[in-house]
Design goal:
This protein has 302 residues and is of the alpha+beta class. It has 14 helices and 10 strands. Bound molecules: glutamic acid. Glutamic acid binds next to loops.
Length: 302
C-alpha cells in the first residue's frame, strides 16, 4: 500500500478546508494556534513511514495523554482500576459533573475528564511522581528524549481549570481519589500539556498496533492492548464516538489541541493534527482526513 501517495492526496484536498474548524479557546495558548496547520504521520508494522505537512511540529496533545496514563495504570493496577472507573461511552460532554453525581462518583470511562482524574490518581499512588513517570513513558515510546511538558500550557490549565477542579473535589467527596485533589490536578494538567508531533505520536502508539509490544519489547499484554483499542473505539472521540466509528471505523483518541491518533491493530498507527475543532471537540479536518484515509485505503477494523 502506497501510504505516502494517499497522505499527499488527503493533504491536497484538506488544506483548503482548514479555516472551517474553530480552535479551542479555553486557554490563551490554544486560542492562538494557527488554524491552517495540518500534519499527518503513519508508521506501519513493517517499518514503513509516511508523512505530510506539519507532521514534525509539536502541538499540545491534551486528551491524547489519557491513553498513555490509562496504559500506565493498567500496567500497575489493572484490577483496582476497573472497580473505580467504568467502560461505557458517556453520551454526555467530556467534563460533565451531572453524570458523576448520578453515578455516585464512578466515572463512565477513563477518557472523560473524571475518569482520567481517577486514572491519574492511581498512577500517582503507584508510581509516586506521575509527572516524571508520564514524561519518561512518552520519551521511551516516541524515542524522542526531549519530549516535554509545555509549562505555560500547564500553568494556564491550572489557573483556568475550574471545572476540572470541581470534578476532582467531587470525586474526592465520593471517596474515589486516594490523593489530595490538588496533587491529582497538578499531574493531570501537566499530562494535558505534553507537546508532541504527529510523527512522535504515531510512533508512540505503535504498541497498540503491535498487540502491546513496541520495538523494545512488551509495553502491555496483548489482551490489555485489545482492551485499550476497544475503549478508544467506544469512548475515544468525545460525544461523537458513534459517528466517528461509523465514518472512520478505527480505534482513535482525540484531544482539543486538534490531534487525533488512530490505530489499526496488526497494521499501523496514524496521527493527524489540524487545530480547528468541530462542535464536539474533535479536529474537524483531522476527522475528515481520517475518513478519507479509511475509505481510500479500505483499512478499518470492520
Ligand atoms: N485540558 C483539557 C481539559 O481537561 C483537555 C481537554 C481535552 O483534550 O479533551 O479540559
Amino acid at each position: 500500500m502506497l501510504y505516502q501517495d494517499i497522505l499527499d492526496r488527503i493533504h491536497a484536498e484538506i488544506v483548503p478546508t482548514l479555516p472551517q474548524g474553530r480552535v479551542a479557546d479555553y486557554i490563551p495558548q490554544l486560542a492562538c494556534v494557527d488554524e491552517r496547520k495540518f500534519g499527518m504521520a503513519l508508521y506501519d508494522v513493517d517499518g514503513h513511514f509516511a508523512s505530510v505537512g506539519d507532521a514534525d511540529e509539536r502541538f499540545s496533545i491534551q486528551s491524547i495523554s489519557k491513553a498513555f496514563t490509562l496504559t500506565q495504570a493498567m500496567r500497575t493496577a489493572d484490577e483496582q482500576l476497573w472497580q473505580r472507573v467504568g467502560r461505557e461511552p458517556s453520551g454526555s460532554s467530556f467534563n460533565s459533573l451531572v453524570q458523576l453525581e448520578y453515578e455516585n462518583g464512578i466515572p463512565r470511562n477513563p477518557f472523560i475528564n473524571a475518569g482520567a482524574l481517577v486514572v491519574t490518581d492511581i498512577v500517582l499512588s503507584q508510581l509516586g511522581d506521575a509527572k516524571v513517570a508520564l514524561r519518561d513513558f512518552a520519551r521511551r515510546l516516541s524515542g524522542a528524549e526531549d519530549v516535554d511538558y509545555d509549562l505555560t500550557v500547564a500553568g494556564s490549565e491550572a489557573r483556568l481549570g475550574y471545572r476540572n477542579a470541581a470534578l476532582a473535589y467531587f470525586l474526592k467527596s465520593f471517596g474515589n481519589l486516594e490523593n489530595h485533589p490538588d496533587a491529582v490536578l497538578d499531574a493531570y494538567f501537566h499530562h494535558c500539556s505534553l507537546a508532541m508531533s504527529c510523527r512522535e505520536l504515531a510512533k508512540s502508539f505503535m504498541y497498540l498496533a503491535r498487540h502491546g509490544a513496541n520495538s523494545d519489547g512488551e509495553v502491555i499484554t496483548p489482551s490489555q492492548a485489545k482492551s485499550i483499542n476497544s475503549l478508544m473505539l467506544t469512548c475515544g472521540t468525545y460525544d461523537a464516538v458513534g459517528a466517528f466509528a461509523y465514518s472512520v471505523g478505527l480505534p482513535a483518541k482525540s484531544g482539543v489541541g486538534g490531534g487525533i491518533v488512530a490505530v489499526m491493530p496488526g497494521r499501523f498507527s496514524l496521527c493527524v493534527w489540524a487545530p480547528g475543532l468541530d462542535n464536539r471537540g474533535n479536529s474537524l479536518a483531522g476527522s475528515q482526513a481520517l475518513e478519507r484515509f479509511a475509505t481510500w485505503t479500505g483499512e478499518s477494523i470492520f
